[in-house]
Automatic annotation (TrEMBL):
<keyword id="KW-0813">Transport</keyword>
<keyword id="KW-0472">Membrane</keyword>
<comment type="similarity">
    <text>Belongs to the binding-protein-dependent transport system permease family. FecCD subfamily.</text>
</comment>
<feature type="transmembrane region" description="Helical">
    <location>
        <begin position="7"/>
        <end position="26"/>
    </location>
</feature>
<keyword id="KW-1133">Transmembrane helix</keyword>
<dbReference type="Pfam" id="PF01032">
    <property type="entry name" value="FecCD"/>
</dbReference>
<keyword id="KW-1003">Cell membrane</keyword>
<dbReference type="InterPro" id="IPR000522">
    <property type="entry name" value="ABC_transptr_permease_BtuC"/>
</dbReference>
<feature type="transmembrane region" description="Helical">
    <location>
        <begin position="158"/>
        <end position="178"/>
    </location>
</feature>
<feature type="transmembrane region" description="Helical">
    <location>
        <begin position="319"/>
        <end position="336"/>
    </location>
</feature>
<feature type="transmembrane region" description="Helical">
    <location>
        <begin position="125"/>
        <end position="146"/>
    </location>
</feature>
<protein>
    <submittedName>
        <fullName>FecCD family ABC transporter permease</fullName>
    </submittedName>
</protein>
<feature type="transmembrane region" description="Helical">
    <location>
        <begin position="62"/>
        <end position="82"/>
    </location>
</feature>
<feature type="transmembrane region" description="Helical">
    <location>
        <begin position="94"/>
        <end position="113"/>
    </location>
</feature>
<dbReference type="InterPro" id="IPR037294">
    <property type="entry name" value="ABC_BtuC-like"/>
</dbReference>
<feature type="transmembrane region" description="Helical">
    <location>
        <begin position="198"/>
        <end position="219"/>
    </location>
</feature>
<feature type="transmembrane region" description="Helical">
    <location>
        <begin position="247"/>
        <end position="277"/>
    </location>
</feature>
């Protein structure tokens, strides 16, 4: 049985990597300016590079693919952790208002410091995740304030409070956006829809440290997350300081989500769907669920971005909208399933 389970896990990993590589291959070779595989390889290996090939690959396509991979990884891992913390398969950073809180803070940053998407300095791009972290923590504080009753987290109230918090921050974001000048407002609107069309290497450098530091910290607490699936008294009896560990894991998750939102806007449903599929494929142990959720999230965002930029070409559909089209029916399915 362990050998069968191990084989299944490696099969899931292999298939996910194949989907990511296939979608990345199509993204890097196809578009308004089509390129052959040989041209791509020569450009990457610096063999007789052509200026137009450098421009297409290094300035447009490759940063976009890398951002999509990092975004899916971060949101998938954060979703798995949040679902583990609250013991609710319907929990998601977007539905709990964490995305909205981080997005509001970043839009406020744009408004106060003129940090537009296209004209931002490197310093302001690096500061965006910090502002997003503050907004995400404020959202998380509101959620904990209204869902913790006598020291225990009420998972029944969690979704309702999350919707209320998300709506409140959404209203704040709209108000601040309407105060912007027209060009900034247009860019903020596109950004909030979950678009990565303007990805660049500075955005990658802005989010990469957060993922490199926080994801290993989260994975190191996989056993703690497993124990937290028990009743709170049982978890305390097993020696887990539930409240402290929950706050640390929530802080790590908010940090990852904030970094993702700062560079891509609000991309919902990845943190809901990826962990749910991962648990069905590899079981409930977070040592396996966390990395597989990241891989499935990567595949979702890379494929979603490919669909968004291909199906309506030359126009583009933001990846956040593409994933929402898939995610809303899936959420309704999960909602009815949990009720039954």
């Amino acid at each position: 049985m362990p050998r069968t389970a191990r084989f299944k896990r490696w099969t899931v990993v292999t298939v996910s990597l194949f989907i990511i590589l296939a979608a990345s291959y199509i993204s890097v070779t196809n578009g308004t300016f089509d390129m052959t595989v040989a041209e791509v390889i020569k450009t990457l290996l610096r063999i007789d590079p052509a200026p137009e090939h450098d421009l297409v690959i290094f300035d447009f396509r490759l940063p976009r693919i890398v951002i999509a991979i990092l975004l899916g990884l971060g949101l998938g891992v954060a979703g798995a952790v949040i679902q583990g913390i609250v013991r609710n398969p319907l929990a998601d950073p977007g539905m709990l208002g964490i995305n909205a809180g981080a997005g509001s803070a970043v839009v406020l940053f744009m408004f106060l410091f003129q940090g537009t998407i296209t004209g931002a300095s490197f310093g302001s791009i690096m500061l965006m995740p910090l502002f997003g972290l503050v907004g995400g923590l404020i959202a998380a504080a509101f959620i904990l304030l209204f869902t913790i009753d006598k020291g225990r987290l009420d998972s029944q109230r969690l979704i309702l409070v999350g919707i209320a918090v998300s709506s409140g921050f959404g209203a704040l974001t709209l108000y601040v956006s309407l105060k912007m000048n027209p060009s900034d407002f247009e860019m903020a609107t596109v950004w909030l829809s979950g678009s990565i069309y303007n990805a660049n290497w500075q955005f990658i450098l802005a989010m990469l440290p957060w993922l490199i530091i926080l994801i290993p910290l989260i994975w190191s607490k996989s056993l703690v997350l497993d124990v937290m699936q028990l009743e709170e008294l049982s978890a305390l009896g097993a020696g887990v300081r539930v409240h402290r560990e929950r706050l640390w894991l929530l802080l790590f998750s908010v940090g990852i989500v904030s970094a993702c939102v700062a560079v891509s806007g609000s991309v919902g449903f990845v943190g809901l769907i990826a962990p749910h599929i991962a648990r069905r494929l590899v079981g409930i142990k977070h040592r396996h669920v966390i990395p597989v959720s990241g891989l499935i999230g990567m595949a979702m965002v890379v494929v979603g971005d490919l669909i968004g930029k291909s199906i309506f070409a030359p126009a583009e559909l933001p990846v956040g909208i593409v994933i929402s089209i898939i995610g809303v029916p899936y959420f309704v399915y999960l909602l009815f399933k949990t009720r039954v």
